[in-house]
């Protein structure tokens, strides 16, 4: 009789480290160009060098971290051209996701989006940049899940991940005083079943802030 081997604890340690670091990068907790070390990552997440190394390898592959020829690991400090490229990707992917979500946008979804948008306003009042970015992405993810297009949503999340550190810098420049008003346009278009209005509102919302950084 064959015995099942004892599970190797390292994959769960690696996955926990990967997900924790990925979340921090996506939500702007680490500024652009900040160097990271395997030792520091291991200490933060209570893991050995191997899970830390595997997490970094995955994040480098996703474009969330950069790895220089000398072995330096850092969050990306994006050029203007790269910001423009990622803004264009957001406009393409997220507009399509919103359009696909529209036929499945029920009243409970719209109510949920209004609640999230109110929470965004609270983060602005608290001057909580990380909370703002996290809640803003929750708004978009909640809508896009209704598109039932998981591959497309995964692509959008990869773009968010690469932009995370830059989004924190953008928040500081914009000095927000209220939740993004284009979110209200998105909600209104969903309620009215207005696809052209929804596409315009999403496209403007996901690009207008980023283009401030390259102007």
Secondary structure tally, helices: 9
What's the β-strand tally? 3
How do the strands of the widest beta sheet line up side by side? 1-3-2
Helicity range: over 70%
Main sheet attributes: strand count, strand direction, barrel closure: 3 strands, antiparallel
Uncertain spans, ≥5 residues at pLDDT below 50?
Answer: 1-10
β-strand amount: under 5%
Mean pLDDT: 90
Class by alpha and beta content:
mainly alpha
Compressed to H and E, one letter per element, the order equals HEHHEEHHHHHH
Distance, first to last CA: 68 Å
Radius of gyration: 19 Å
Q: Judging from the principal axes of the Cα atoms, what is the shape?
A: globular
Topology:
Blueprint: H1 9-26, E1 35-36, H2 38-45, H3 49-61, E2 66-67, E3 73-74, H4 80-101, H5 107-125, H6 129-145, H7 150-174, H8 181-192, H9 195-214
Helix pairs in contact: 1-3, 1-7, 2-3, 4-6, 4-7, 4-9, 5-6, 5-8, 6-7, 7-9, 8-9
């Amino acid at each position: 009789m064959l015995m099942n081997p004892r599970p190797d604890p390292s994959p769960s340690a690696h996955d926990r480290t990967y997900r924790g670091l990925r979340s921090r990068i996506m939500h702007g907790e680490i500024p652009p160009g900040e160097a990271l070390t395997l030792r520091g990552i291991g200490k933060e997440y209570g893991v050995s060098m191997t899970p830390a190394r595997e997490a970094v390898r995955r994040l480098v592959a996703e474009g969330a971290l950069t790895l220089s020829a000398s072995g330096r690991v850092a969050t990306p400090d994006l050029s203007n051209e790269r910001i423009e490229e990622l803004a264009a990707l957001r406009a393409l992917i997220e507009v399509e996701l919103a359009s696909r979500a529209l036929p499945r946008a029920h009243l409970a979804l719209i109510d949920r989006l209004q609640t999230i948008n109110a929470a965004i306003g609270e983060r602005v009042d608290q001057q909580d940049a990380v909370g703002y970015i996290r809640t803003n992405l929750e708004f978009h993810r909640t809508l896009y899940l209704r598109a039932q297009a998981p591959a497309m949503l995964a692509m959008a999340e990869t773009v968010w991940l690469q932009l995370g550190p830059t989004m924190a810098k953008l928040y500081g420049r914009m000095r927000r005083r209220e939740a993004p008003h284009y979110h209200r346009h998105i909600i209104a278009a969903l309620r009215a079943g207005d696809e052209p209005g929804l596409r315009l509102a999403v496209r403007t919302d996901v690009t207008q802030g980023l283009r401030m950084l390259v102007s």
